[in-house]
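**User:** My hope is that you can spare some time for a protein that puzzles me. I have put the entry right below:
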Amino acid sequence: MKWFCLLLCIVFNCLIGVNAVFGMSYPEGSIEPRFVPAQQGDEKLVYEISWSGGIKIGDVWMEVNKLDEAGSRFELRVRVKDSGLFHFFYPVDDSFVTIIDGKKRLPLSYDVIQKEGTDYTAIRHTTYNQEKRTVRYQKNEEEPQLYMVDGDVHNEFSSFFITRLLNLDRENSVTVPTFADDRRHEVVVKTGERTRLTDTVRGDVNVFPVKPLMKFKGLYDKDGDTVVWLTDDDCRIPVLVNSKIVIGSLTATLVSYSNPFCSDQSVYHSER
């Protein structure tokens, strides 16, 4: 059971097979400067993934590491590991590393090591030439594939990162250009009304929903919205992710968080 594929699609905004929404056009999202200081690296997030009814199926570790003193190049490192009974059905231990650079936090490279089941291993490498508008992809020792794109592109992890920096307006949706399924997509991102979550890893916090509008192809079909709950402060911490699937739902709950650039926001959140 390859639950990890769907997990990544949900938790990290993996945009495989995303289509335009109702043929409408939206502007590309712009970075809001006041959110940038909290995203300067040395950030560590740990999630527990559960299926309907609270059955834990895995864990996700994510790190944002600064690679230069200028603060323009970062490493996004993610590991996905099975948990509990799922280890006996389909063990998973996958690693993902994305290098992003520049003011737009665009990806330069993307490396994947997949270890799944009892005997499956795959190594994937993708490089992005944002100036020449090309994406080069290679799996194992297969012949590399070169794709032409008509603008800047993110991958699933850099798009998740950049969404936290965007100027999001409840009244106006924006797009995040993302390369997936062999092509470039203008992925629509909506946000909604502010609310409050209790007993999170950051205590009781004010949050707002972010909804990437996605349509998945192939084995896994979504049966409802995916919602990423970000703290309504300058840290923009994704404390909870939920998505309905064909059978039940998946929930990613943040259980550990550290970031030396993100101060305690408890006083701010004491006011609803």
Notes: The chain has a mean pLDDT of 84. Residues 4 and 24 are 31 Å apart (CA to CA). The first helix runs from residue 3 to 11. The two ends are 42 Å apart (CA to CA).
